[in-house]
Design brief:
Blueprint (H helix, E strand, L loop, with lengths): L1 H5 L2 H18 L4 H19 L9 H22 L5 H23 L1
Helix pairs in contact: 2-3, 2-5, 3-4, 4-5
């Protein structure tokens, strides 16, 4: 399963954007997420439309990926709304990060 997870390109691509935006935001730097929210949404959609490795092709993972797309859309809208506060962006991003960890956890079961 580890090899299959490592070969899941779309999951790795989403993880790169998540890592490159979540950790800076935790430290108070919102520039990465405010400039890359559209890219994150695109990666979430690619994850949803891409081929899910056989051992991960479960209803739970499909639901979590759907939640990831929904959360990415909400975050992207929030980022592009005038006067969205860093606090609101962080809350949305944190929820998305938690959803991503659900997928990671399901892949590790």
């Amino acid at each position: 399963k580890v090899i299959e997870k490592d070969a899941w390109t779309e999951l790795k691509e989403f993880h790169k954007v998540m890592g490159g935006t979540f950790h800076p935001a935790e430290e108070g730097n919102f520039v990465p997420i405010r400039t890359r929210s559209g890219g994150m949404l695109a990666k979430a959609k690619a994850l949803q439309t891409g081929k899910i490795p056989t051992s991960f092709n479960t209803p739970a993972i499909k639901k979590a990926i759907g939640d990831l797309v929904t959360g990415s859309e909400a975050l992207d809208k929030l980022v592009h709304k005038k006067k969205s506060s860093d606090k609101a962006v962080m809350e949305s991003l944190t929820k998305l990060h938690d959803t991503f960890h659900v997928i990671q956890g399901l892949c590790n079961d």
